[in-house]
Every structure is written in structure tokens, then in C-alpha cells.
């Protein structure tokens, strides 16, 4: 690296440190996330159906539905997403997902399979547990519209996920948000490398 390149690098680093980062931090203190629907402030989670921005308050049938605060109260709570730990609630028998609205006796076809998604960055790899997902959801919820069931066919980025695509279709709206990084990024690269030796 020559002296000009070094000076440019030093200037750029100082510029970001003095100008850009304080601006980002000031905005972060004001509003932790102005672009991402997955980072809803706790005070705005589980609002009434009339004010959630999803349901049409003019529809008369809305009053037939339970409000989130009432529906979620008996379930296992957590700090992320909509404050419900759906997996623990299902394991305790507090929820019993209906897999086919025309056949209440139809049971889930749970799949006891975990796949590891390699991450190119320094974060640990992602372990995707089919068991926890397929006990609550039918495979058709994800395959093939969101994920193709073929290794290497689903490139994804955190930006996509945070914008409500791929895993972000559920995580951040009803499932725990992507701010709980280690719940997905749980496979230590060093341990995986040692096992191969």
C-alpha cells in the first residue's frame, strides 16, 4: 500500500468515525429502526386488531375474532416477536395447530431433520430445524414458493430477511425476530471444522 492509499484509508476511516457513525447513532437513539418492519417497538406489538394495520377495521366480522392480548395470555411468553414462544406453547399442549380446515382429525407430518446453512461471513452457521417448523406448519407453507427443497438453490441475505422475504416472512411478524441472532446462527464453525479432521 503506497502513502496516498494509506492517507485515503485513514481519511475515510476518520470521516466515517466523525461524521457518519454519530449520525447513525443519533438516529438509532431516536428510532431504532425506521426501515424494517421486523423491529417493532414493544409498545406497538400485539395491538388491537382494529389498529394493527393488517385487519380492516370496517369489516363487521372483526369483532368475532379474539384480540391478541386475550388470545396470547395463556401461552408461553418470550421477549421477541409477538411475545409468544410458539414452539414451547405447542410442546406444552397450549396450542393445537389445525392442519386442514376441512379435516380436524388430520395430523401434522412432522419431519425430524435439521439442515445446516453455511454462512460466508464470520457469524456461526445457521441450523434450520424442520421438526419445530413442521409440527406447526405444513411443508407447503414454505416449499416451493419461498424455498426450493434443493441444496444450494436458496441464496439469501440478512437484508432480504429483514425486508420480509425468505425466513422474514414469519420471523419478525409472528415468530421471534432476527434481532435474536444466536437462535439461528448456532453452529460454531470451529467445532464443525474439528469434527471433519
Sequence stretches where pLDDT stays below 50 over 5 or more residues: 3-29, 31-35
* Spatial separation of the terminal alpha carbons: 37 Å
Could you state the oligomeric state of the chains shown? single chain
Shape, per Cα inertia axes = globular
CATH superfamily of the largest domain: Cytochrome C3
Q: What is the CATH class designation of the largest domain?
A: Alpha Beta
Kindly state the percentage of residues in helix: 25-40%
Number of strands: 3
Mean pLDDT: 78
Helix-strand string: HHHEEHHEH
Short description:
By secondary structure, this protein is mainly α.
What labels describe this entry?
disordered N terminus, 6 helices, globular, 29% helix, 197 residues, mainly alpha, 3-stranded antiparallel β-sheet, Cytochrome C3
